[in-house]
Specification:
The chain contains 18 helices and 15 strands. With 474 residues, the protein is α+β, with helices and mostly antiparallel strands. Helix 1 (6-14) crosses helix 2 (22-32), helix 9 crosses helix 10 and helix 11 (317-326) runs parallel beside helix 18 (459-473). It binds pyridoxal-5'-phosphate (PLP). The site of pyridoxal-5'-phosphate has 10 residues, from helix 6. Pfam families: Aminotran_5 (PF00266).
Length: 474
């Protein structure tokens, strides 16, 4: 093991009680609790984390954005590169030997995907996609004349830290991204489709090996049988060939149950610590969204929150983000991939969001009118002024009062734990929040005037000023 492994260093120091730091004390107490049995894959994380994951981020860095992108291990990457550098793979749609080898890889990986989700090859197709979003786009939303209903499961975030048993859940469609599961490769996902539901997939263009018959003159073609008929162009076969190394890495950890238990041990510790953070006037420092109080079946290792001032006002997410980045914590602010939930959490109405778009957006805007109960959609480019006019027109048409620029508490902070999260990562988060934002001494000293700006300006505009204040405090 590398001498510079900070986890090992902490463990070694823990053996000498006289020199225990706050981190070491907190970790010792965590490891003495019942949570420790599911933490760290029976010692694997302590031993290998630095060489496998930590070293590429560098000392003192804490990756806390696993829902943004999962992480790979160094040995997973080494195995993938070893394979690619010793195997001749061609275009999977031809018949020559290197093509046939690629075709075998593509088929073998479909079987691995099915096995990972415990889905049967008799029931489901695996269609390779660019990612979870592409899978969603392929599924028709409208139910047909018989009023049939279909279940589409977007498991992009869930599957990263949970076992998902398709034989029990039985969705018609399941969409996932592999970079969320094991970091590498990115730009590759899958749509699992129940065979009887395949006719609900939207397919407009074709290319590569996805068509069996067509003419250049007439507008008709016959798609190849599923799944190939639903995959556009040439598959990312080298990436697909590397999927096996990601699945092997998860298996080496003990499978998704082990990942899930590991994340849950850290979620419980972090949740209890966040609840305890408060200002000296007794007001909570963090307003936590989600269903943490209801336990792991309702809430995974994602913390969506706002940092609050002693008066209960929101600290802009961009400030927390800037302070975290400066301290080596990689988290996210904004509304992330779930604007609907985010706005519901923050109490933002559709009308307020229209006003925000109209008043604050700078530069060209692409307006996309989403279909309302139909499959038609249209889009058009427009200037900010046109957006304002459109929003005002909509207000007028709806008989609603004219628009006004309103200050909104948009943007919360998201921390998401994953397969290689460590106790040190969670400790660093709690310390950053408690150390930087308790009582807002810096904030009030440097930015007494700035608080007003916070209430009336968009986050991005004052982030620079606030960042400067954080820098002063360090
Ligand atoms: C629930 C959910 N669905 C879809 C996506 C988008 O996935 P992709 O980037 O693979 O298209 C995300 C991304 O974070 C997500 O969390």
């Amino acid at each position: 093991m590398s001498k510079s492994n900070p986890l090992s260093a902490a463990a070694a120091a823990a053996a000498a009680p006289a020199a225990l730091s706050d981190l070491q004390k907190a970790k010792a107490s965590f490891l003495n609790s019942e949570l420790s049995s599911s933490y760290g894959y029976q010692g694997w994380l302590e031993q290998h984390w630095w060489a496998e994951v930590g070293a590429r981020f560098g000392p003192g860095q804490h990756y806390l954005d696993y829902t943004g992108a999962g992480q790979f291990t160094t040995s997973q990457l080494a195995a993938a590169f070893q394979e690619l550098s010793t195997t001749g793979l061609g275009n999977p749609h031809s018949n020559n030997p290197s093509s046939a080898a690629a075709t075998r890889e593509v088929a073998a990986a479909r079987a691995l995907v099915l096995a990972h989700f415990n889905a049967s090859a008799e029931e489901y197709h695996v269609i390779y996609t660019k990612g979870a979003t592409e899978g969603l786009k392929m599924v028709h939303a409208k139910s047909d004349v018989h009023n049939q209903h279909f279940v589409l499961l977007d498991a992009a975030a869930y599957a990263a830290t949970h076992a998902l048993d398709m034989s029990a859940v039985q969705p018609d469609f399941l969409t996932v991204s592999f970079y969320k599961l094991f970091g590498y490769p990115s730009g590759l996902g899958a749509l699992l489709v129940r065979k009887q539901a395949a006719q609900r997939l939207r397919k407009v263009y074709f290319g590569g090996g996805s068509v069996s018959y067509c003419t250049a003159e007439d507008a008709w073609h016959v798609l190849s049988p599923a799944p190939a008929g639903y995959e556009d162009g040439t598959l990312g076969s080298l990436n697909i060939a590397c999927l096996k190394h990601g699945f092997s890495q998860l298996a080496a950890l003990g499978g998704m149950q082990a990942v899930s238990a590991h994340v849950e041990s850290l979620r419980q510790w972090t949740y209890s610590q966040l609840l305890q953070l408060c200002h000296s006037n007794g007001q909570p420092l963090v307003r936590l969204f989600g269903r943490h109080a209801e336990g792991p079946r309702q809430q995974g290792g994602i913390f969506q929150f706002q940092v609050l001032t002693p008066e209960g006002d929101r600290v802009p997410g961009s400030l927390v983000d800037a302070a975290a980045s400066a301290a080596g914590l990689h988290l996210r602010s904004g509304c992330n991939c779930n604007p609907g939930r985010c706005m519901a959490n923050l109490g933002i109405t559709p009308q307020q969001e229209r006003e925000r778009a109209a008043k604050f957006h700078k530069g060209p805007i692409l307006i996309v009118m989403r279909p309302q109960g139909s499959n038609s959609s249209s889009s058009s480019s427009s200037s900010p002024e046109a957006i304002v006019r459109l929003a005002e027109q909509q207000q007028q048409d709806a008989g609603e009062p004219p628009l006004e620029a309103v200050p909104l508490p948009l943007g919360s902070v998201r921390v998401s734990l994953g397969a290689y999260s460590t106790f040190e990562d969670c400790y660093a988060l709690v310390r950053l929040l408690g150390g930087t934002f308790t009582d807002f001494e810096v904030y009030q000293r440097e930015l007494a005037a700035g608080m007003k700006l916070v209430r009336v300006m968009d986050d991005a505009e004052h982030a620079v000023k606030l960042r400067a204040a954080v820098a002063l405090a360090q």
